[in-house]
Design goal:
482 residues, mainly beta, seven-stranded mixed beta sheet, disordered N terminus, binds CU-O-CU linkage, binds copper (II) ion
């Protein structure tokens, strides 16, 4: 049965759209419960193993798709829980029939252990690295970062979440029971063929603007609901989509209290009515379910997503369901108020002697697309594995002025966390006030960062657009830190 956009809107809690929440609760009662990725807690052992393998996943209950995953998962991998102050041994084995490299997006580690495109793991090989973790708690993720193949590999499932923890969330007043009051939500969009099989065959338009799909998966599952206790609930959100930008909000109008951005906690929660999350970005939000009423996490595609915007629109509505949430009234939450402070902010960077660098993100148009894969570029140059774009002194602080042109691009830098100094010459939006490693540049943005991790010319750090078709298409560069 072909899955049309209309079917999609009808399913998964659509009854709740009339804003009658008892009805929403009834509609949800029959819906199966969302599973968390399995938790792989390496805080005690200081070691973890990932095995990448091929499998089959039946996303829509029709026909199975050929997918990739790690360990017991046929799609995506376990949530790795790592200690913030540790030397953690990682071992990644490749049981696929093609090479891949695995990048720790959000870990502040050396270029040698960062898992960029210069570190492919051949089929049947194992890559072992010691991750020297010394950074504040954060939600990070791992994903394939394979030369020219990242978009394809992430679609197939080579990704997962990482939680860096210091074990002190109780003191912060934050929910921390995995899968109970602390939910991990990987949000991805996919296209399916008429028989319900996932389809990734980017055409010229997809390579130009990024590949989006009209079915939303959460943790690789479709049409599920989350069940939460009657109390404060923490959502760790990862936009693991190739290209779609989401404006997330609560159908019931609940505020989302932002407590952490990519690189860790804020000083105090920021209440938001809606949260824009671009590919590669993570955010942690608290929602107050003490009233016991169900809700529906919805998304809309931001208009500033350029040509992508409006694709989901249809039928006069530009919002779509992401995840119904129902409250288990027999389960009292451990926490019943949003904390006033989190105490996460690091001291501001000293930018008085910062070097300035201009970064222009360019999408090739028209004829350029026919010349092959390198349609996109940065400062006039498409990514070249053999060319180092520049070198930075270790300990140096730099300000990068990023110019996004034509459409919004999520810009990511390896090996650093940064502060956003300005957006389009004005103040920074609420969602970008914390420390980040990926920022949606919709126009222009200035970021400041200090380069503390070493990266040689042999295993340099990448900087790129996190729309994966742009990254593979050449909107990436590389630098060493010496
Ligand atoms: Cu999340 Cu260079 O990647
Ligand atoms: Cu990264
Ligand atoms: Cu881009």
């Amino acid at each position: 049965m072909p899955l049309t956009r209309r079917d999609f809107f009808r399913s998964a809690g659509a009854a709740g759209l009339v804003a009658g929440f008892p009805e929403l609760a009834r509609a949800q009662a029959g819906t199966a419960i969302l599973q968390m990725p399995p938790l792989l807690d390496a805080t005690a052992s200081g070691a973890f193993e990932l095995l990448a393998r091929a499998g089959e996943t039946n996303f829509l209950g029709q026909n199975a798709s050929e997918t990739w995953g790690f360990n017991d998962q046929s799609f995506l991998g376990p949530t790795l829980r790592l200690a913030t102050d540790s030397l953690t041994k990682a071992s990644v084995r490749n049981a696929l029939d093609e090479p891949f490299s695995l990048h720790w997006h959000g870990l502040l580690v050396s270029g040698q252990t960062d898992g960029g495109p210069h570190q492919p793991i051949a089929p049947d090989d194992t890559w072992s690295v010691d991750l020297n973790i010394d950074q504040p708690p954060a939600t990070a993720w791992y994903h394939s970062h394979t030369h020219l193949r990242t978009a394809n590999h992430v679609q197939k499932g080579l990704a997962g979440v990482m939680q860096l923890t210091d074990g002190r969330d109780d003191e912060r007043g934050l929910p921390s029971e995995y899968g109970t009051d602390d939910l991990t939500l990987v949000i991805q969009d996919r296209r399916f063929d008429r028989r319900g099989r996932a389809e990734y065959d980017p055409g010229m338009h997809d390579r130009m603007t990024g590949f989006t799909g009209d079915v939303i998966l959460v943790n690789g599952q479709f049409g599920k609901r989350a069940v939460v206790p009657q109390g404060i609930v923490r959502l760790r959100l990862l936009n693991g989509s190739n290209a779609r930008i989401y404006d997330l909000s609560s159908r019931a109008g609940r505020e989302m209290h932002l407590v952490a951005t990519d690189a860790g906690f804020l000083d105090r929660p920021i209440a938001l009515n809606s949260l824009r999350l671009a590919p590669g970005e993570r955010a942690e939000v608290l929602l107050d379910f003490t009233d016991g009423a169900g809700d529906l996490l919805i998304g809309s595609s931001s208009a500033s997503g350029g040509m992508m915007g409006g694709m989901m629109g249809g039928a006069g509505s530009d919002s779509f369901d992401i995840l119904p949430i129902s409250v288990d009234l027999s389960q009292r939450g451990r926490l019943d108020r949003i904390p006033d402070t989190i105490g996460g902010t690091l001291p501001d960077l000293d930018i008085r002697n910062a070097t300035r660098r201009d970064i222009t993100l360019e999408s090739g148009m028209g004829g350029m697309f026919r010349r092959g894969r390198n349609q996109h570029s940065i400062n006039g140059q498409s990514f070249d594995m053999d060319r180092l774009n520049f070198s930075v002194q270790r300990g140096a602080t730099e300000i990068w002025a990023i110019d996004g042109q034509t459409m919004a691009h999520p810009f990511h830098v390896h090996g650093v966390r940064f502060q956003v100094l300005s957006e389009n010459g004005g103040p920074v939006s609420n969602r970008n006030r914390g420390w980040k490693d990926t920022v949606l540049v919709d126009g222009r943005a200035e970021i400041a960062m200090r380069f503390d991790q070493l990266a040689s010319a042999a295993t340099p750090f990448m900087f790129h657009c996190h729309i994966l078709e742009h990254e593979d298409g050449g909107m990436m560069g590389q630098f060493s830190v010496v």
